[in-house]
Structures are given as C-alpha cells and as structure tokens.
Amino acid sequence: MSLAGLPGAASCPVCGAMPERVLYPLVRDPITAAVFQVVACASCGLAYTSPRPLDPEPFYPRSYRAFGPVVTRALTMFYRMRVRRWSRSQSRPGSLLEIGCGPGLMLQAFRERGWNVLGIERNQAVAERARSSLGLDIVSAPVASLPPDSRFDLILLFQVLEHLAEPLPLLRDCACRLAPGGRLLINVPNFASWQSRFAGPAWMHLDVPRHLIHFTPKTLGGTLERAGLRLAALRFDSPEHDPYGWVESAISRFGGRPNRLTRRLIGLDPLGPAAILSFAAGALLAFPAALLAGASWLARSGALMEATAVRVCDADAG
Which has the closest alpha carbon to 137: 147, 61, 57? Predict the structure, then answer.
C-alpha cells in the first residue's frame, strides 16, 4: 500500500525520510488493543511503527515483563548461559555497562564472573528493587550523564534498541563510551526472520507500539554505521525466546486475540477456558516450534538476532 501524501505519517527514526509504503495497515497492540501501522522508509528501508505514541507510558502496564517465579527462573538460567558465552570471548573480566537492565539478572551473572558492572534502568522502582535485593550499582540516568572518563569493555543493549523512538543518539553515546577494543552487544527482533514472515502482523515480537523499530540484518547494520559503529558479527540463536515466539505467533495468527499466552503469564487475563485452550495448544506446538527455531538458526533467519559492533576506528586499526 502506498503512503504517498498520507497526512500525519511519521518520518524515519534513523534517516528522517518519509515512509514509502505500508507493510501492515492494521496491527493491534496485544495489551491495549490500540491500532497502529508498520511502514517502510523510502530511503533506508527501515520498518517502523506509525504513528509513534506521544506518551508511551499507557502501553507499559506495571505487569509488563513481570513474569512469575517459574518463568523468571527459566529466563535466569538462559541468561546465565548467554553471560557465560559472552564472558568467554574476553581474555579476562572487564567493565560492563548494561542499558535497560531491568531487574538486573544479567548484571548479577556478570558480577559473579568477576566483572565490574553498572546498570542503567529508566524505571526507578525496578532499579531500586535490584539495588536493594541484589546490591547492584544501577542508576536511572542517561548514558550522557555518566562521568566523562567512564569507559567500558562491553556495553549491552538486550532487547532495548527496538523500543527507542530515536536510536542514533544512544548508539553514538555508546560508541563514545567503549574502551579501546571494546564491544557493543545488541539483541533485537529480526523482522526478516522466518517467524516474522510466517505470522505477519500477528508476530509476537512485533509488539507494537512498545517496539517502535523493526530491524533486519541490513537495516541494523546501516543504523550502526550512521552511529560510527561497524557490525562485526551476527548470531540468530535465541533458545529462551524463539521457540516460544513460534508457539505464541501461531496461536495469535489462527486463534484470534494476540499474545494470549503472554497476557496470561503477566496476569492481564484470568485463567479461563480460552487461556486453558491456548496453553493446551502451546503444549502440542512446543516440539515443532523447537524444530522450526533450530532450523531458522541454521538458516540465519532466527526470530531474534544478536549483533556485535565495534567502533569504526577500532575496526580500521584491527
């Protein structure tokens, strides 16, 4: 669908050009039922949500990502596996900055491995709970407010960049805060994935309007270049999110209300007949979902991608 001349269309959050076409004319927020579009930039090809909410707070309920103890324990196990892999890529523990650290699960895992850790979390209540319960160093302030000489061997943006209306300022701040030879790790949904193409506007990881940008490997690489960074590596395996995404996306595509399982897990819906049927369907779909996820990783088309970026000057020196 063409967007030529459409009043009120949001400009591209990366290059500023106007959108060329509508990719999905109607995408319903699984939490509020508000309706949005996903459009494509005419210049750089980036897909993004339109319109962008003037006030994002109503779309982030208090229960957002507030999973119960069973799910939290499972995520903690998977996150520790990631931290172990990331740590092994360093010759020795260094300094870590995690932006959007939430309850501090990854910060704690890094600290246990000898890293000096600092977290940034905009939700002050969440940050305070992590500080008091885990004793972590977490601030509720932008990267630019850190001491001028603060440098980090590793900066982590785990499922953060897709939430930003303007990603370039943060990426540029991160580039300035990398120590020589430092790395920026970014984890975002892959809009070019098999899962995305299968589910379309019912894709779980589309998650409008909390997800404002929908990256592909190409558009993520182009965004990093504009920030003075270079894409050094890209992975597509995500055992904690990808199989579940297949299950939730299939149920949403064929079963009506989007993200019914997730709504129940974060306490938005009661445990009624619809939720029970969805969990039963999820149990039946779990094994084929795991097979599809594994195949998509081998094909470099997983539902989430993990990018390693370095500063352009460091890459050129290497």
Answer: 147
Rg of the chain taking only CA atoms, in angstroms: 19
- Residue 249 sits at φ, ψ, to 5 deg, of -70, -40
Number of alpha carbons in the 13 Å side-chain half-sphere of residue 76: 12
Instruction: Indicate left, alpha or beta for 305 from its phi (over 0: left) and psi (-120 to 50: alpha).
Output: beta
Phi-psi region of 215 (alpha: psi -120 to 50; beta: other; left: phi over 0): beta
Asked if 199 contacts 296 with a C-beta cutoff of 8 angstroms, the reply is no
Q: Is the dihedral of CA 5, 208, 16, 187 positive or negative?
A: negative
Mean pLDDT by 10 residues, the chain (318 residues): 49 92 93 92 95 85 62 82 89 93 90 94 83 88 91 96 96 96 97 97 94 97 97 95 93 80 72 78 91 97 97 67
CB 138 within 8 A of CB 130: yes
DSSP character string of 43-105: SS--EEEESPPS--GGGS-TTTT---HHHHHHHHHHHHHHHHHHHHTSSS--EEEEES-TT-H
Residue 1: what residue type? M
Name, in order, each residue with C-beta under 8 angstroms of 212's C-beta and a sequence gap of 6 or more: 13, 48, 49, 52, 162, 163, 164, 165
For the entire predicted model, the pTM comes to 0.90
Is 310 in contact with 232 (CB distance < 8 Å)? yes
- The residues, any chain, with a CB within 8 Å of residue 142's CB and separated by 6 or more, are 120, 173
According to the model, what pLDDT value does residue 5 have?
37
Q: What residues pair up with 241 in beta bridges, in sequence order?
A: none
